[in-house]
Structures are given as C-alpha cells and as structure tokens.
Design brief:
two-stranded parallel ribbon, single chain, 2 strands, mainly alpha
Length: 390
C-alpha cells in the first residue's frame, strides 16, 4: 500500500522550524512541547506515534534533544532532504543571534557597561544551571542505587578535577549495560549487536578525528575536532555540554578564560533555540565568523547523523533493553558531570554577596514557579548587575 501524501509541504515545515528557532525560549523541554502542540495537536502534520518515536530516538542518541527531534520530524515524510532543511532552519536564527552578540562582545567587551551587564548575567546563570541540574537529577536518576553511585562519582570527579572525562561517561553506560543485560543474553541477537556496533563507531569517530589537533597549527581544524567530540556526548539537555566545553575550552586549550566562558553560557540563555548554540559564540571569540561556523557545524553534525542513519531501524530495535541500559548509564554520568560543573562555575563566578544573592534568587524563583521565564530572569540580572556596578 503506497504511503499517503503528507498534509503539509516541506516549505511549510521549514518555515515553522525557522519561526520556532527564532522565538522558541524555555530550553529543550519547552521546545519539544511546542512541537507537539503545534505539529501534532493543532496542525496535525505529524502523527502522535511518529512524534513519540522521534522523541524516544532523541533521548536515546547523543545530541541536543530539541534539535534532534526537529531533525527527525523533518525526516518522517521528507527523509534526508527534510531532515537537513528542517535542522538548518531550526538552528540558523539562534546561530545568527549569538554571532551578532559575539561581535558586540568583542567590540564592547572591554567597556565598563558590558562588564557590568555580564557581572549580573553570570551569577543568574549559575542559579539557572543549578536548578536545571536538580530537575535533571530528579528526573533521570530515580531510586536506582547504581545510577546514584555513577552520578555521585562523576559529580565529585568533575568538581575536583574541573574537567569532564568522556571515557568515564562511556564506561558508565557500558557498566549499566553489562550489569542489567549480561553479554550472554544478547550474544544470540546479531542484529542488535550490529546496531550497537554502529553506535559505538559513531561514538569513537570524534576520538579518531581529535588525534591530530595538538600538532596541527590550523585552529579551525582544532575547533572542528573538539566540537565534533563535544556534540557526540550531549544527551538530552544542551546543558550537558557545559562541563565538557569548560574542560576543553578553558582548561585544556585555554581558548577562553573563566569569565568569557560563563558569559558564553549566559548568551545561550538569553537567545531562543537550543542552548547548545553557545558553541557558535565560543567559536566566534576564538576564530571569528569562520570559527563560529566550524564550531556549530561540528557540534550538530554528530546528532544529525545519529538521527537520520538509525531512523529507519529505530522502530525495530530502539526499545531493546541493552540500548536502553547503555543510555541510562551515560545519562546518569552526564547529569553528574553537570552537577559538578555547577560547583566549578559557581566557585569562579560567585565573587561577592550580590552575585551570591542573584544566583540564589534565580534558583529560588525557578523552584517556586514553573512558569518563570529564564530570559526575563537573565535580563533582570543584567539590569541589576549594571545598577550595582554603576
């Protein structure tokens, strides 16, 4: 039986993704909610079954949740062309915004008013990340003692070393996989093993591409290799990339200092679209507009590939216990690293009583009100920072 013709055109879906990327505030949870409301309930372009499958794949595979879901929804009826155009449309508006802010930051960053604005922004970001880390912890860890052990270990490791170890995160996934699904149970399922091998290959790809940058003087290549690795390990919330970026951008490569990095996170918070678009701002500060393009492309390439390649097979294998266990372990480790990063960044950005109060107030407002808009909190903190400094 031939497939029914879609009730919408690719142009309509691309324009919708462009609009959502331009005005969609609230982080990944809000963005995926908007897509369900608009595309499933109101317009009825996407079936609820297709939406749920896309959401499950976005949660399973590495990549920023909202961007990956948008890519999958573009794939449903228009396949690779649809996935590509919808993904680009969703990311492009916020990318252009952070590039413009990067230009303004470089031009005016040395001025007192700009420093005063980011004085307040940085403190509020700590409160927002702390609240997000709490929500992620409650949602993903539950009462599983093994996941709690992984979470606590990664949080402590990140806080003490001030860096994130990707090998520990991968090992956490393997540990939960092996404990919950002993290898003997899946040895007789070659199809599942093949799918796991493909996923493992994509996980290993950034490590292979990252082997050369230390001796390669080309900074753009170094940016590509680093951000490709970063994009491969973003699970769920875009905030998951923060501790990894901090360890590489600030500690290892020393492209930015602590203050610049926290300002980059703040910029991502005040712009619509995926939080992970902060990589465009970072890339711009490191190597101008080419650096922004390379950083964004490298970050989103893994999640794009890990959406369109397994999509045809996901209905058949996505619910297999082995894959689900691996993702649980990786997610627990990633959330632990985020919690550790909150401690690290808090030590760097909470400098005095006003910044401590701003961080606490931001977290308290988000705790008390689920509808508190993060962009408005950031804006208010910027104004307060400017008033305090002047």
């Amino acid at each position: 039986m031939p497939d029914l013709k879609p009730s919408y055109t690719l142009k309509q879906l691309v324009l919708y993704a462009l609009k959502l990327g331009a005005v969609g505030f609230g982080g990944p949870v809000a963005l995926v909610g908007y897509m369900f409301r608009d595309l499933v309930e109101k317009r009825k372009w996407i079936s609820e079954a297709d939406y749920k499958e896309g959401l499950a794949l976005a949660q399973l595979a590495p990549g920023p949740l909202a961007a990956q879901l948008a890519i999958y929804l573009g794939y449903v009826d228009y396949h690779i062309l649809g996935a590509t155009l919808v993904g680009l449309a969703f990311v492009l508006p916020s990318f252009l915004m952070v590039v413009a802010l990067g230009w303004a930051y470089q031009v005016y960053g040395g001025l007192a008013w700009m420093q005063a604005v980011f004085y307040g922004l940085g403190a509020a970001v700590i409160g927002i990340i702390a609240h997000s880390a709490y929500k992620l912890t409650v949602k993903t860890i539950g009462k599983n003692k093994l996941l709690w052990a992984i979470y606590i270990f990664l949080a402590a490791f990140t806080a003490i070393t001030e860096s994130e170890n990707i090998y520990l995160i991968l090992a956490s996934g393997v540990l939960v996989w092996v404990i919950e699904n002993p290898p003997l149970k899946i040895k007789t399922n070659p199809s599942l093993l093949a799918l796991l091998a493909v996923l493992a290959g994509f996980f290993a790809l950034p490590f292979l591409t990252a082997a050369a940058p230390a001796s390669n003087p080309n900074r753009l290549w170094s940016l590509f290799a680093f951000f490709a690795k970063a994009g491969t390990f973003v699970f769920g919330s875009g905030l998951a990339i923060v501790p990894f970026l901090y360890g590489g951008v600030v500690k290892h490569h020393q492209w930015l200092n602590d203050k610049q990095f926290l300002d980059a996170v703040a910029v991502a918070m005040i712009t619509p679209g995926p939080v992970v678009i902060t990589v465009g701002f970072i890339g711009y500060l490191v190597a101008g507009f080419p650096g922004a393009c390379v950083a964004a492309f490298a970050t989103f390439l893994p999640c794009y590939l890990l959406t369109i390649l397994p999509a045809p097979y996901f209905k058949k294998y996505g619910k297999k216990p082995a894959i689900a266990s691996f993702v649980k372990g990786v997610t627990a480790a990633a959330v632990g690293a985020i919690t550790g990063a909150v401690i690290v960044l808090g030590r760097k950005s909470i400098l005095d009583i006003p910044t401590a109060l701003l961080a606490i107030i931001a977290a308290a407002l988000l705790w008390k009100s689920k509808k508190a808009p993060e962009p408005l909190l950031i804006l208010a903190a910027a104004i307060i920072g400017w008033v305090i400094k002047h």
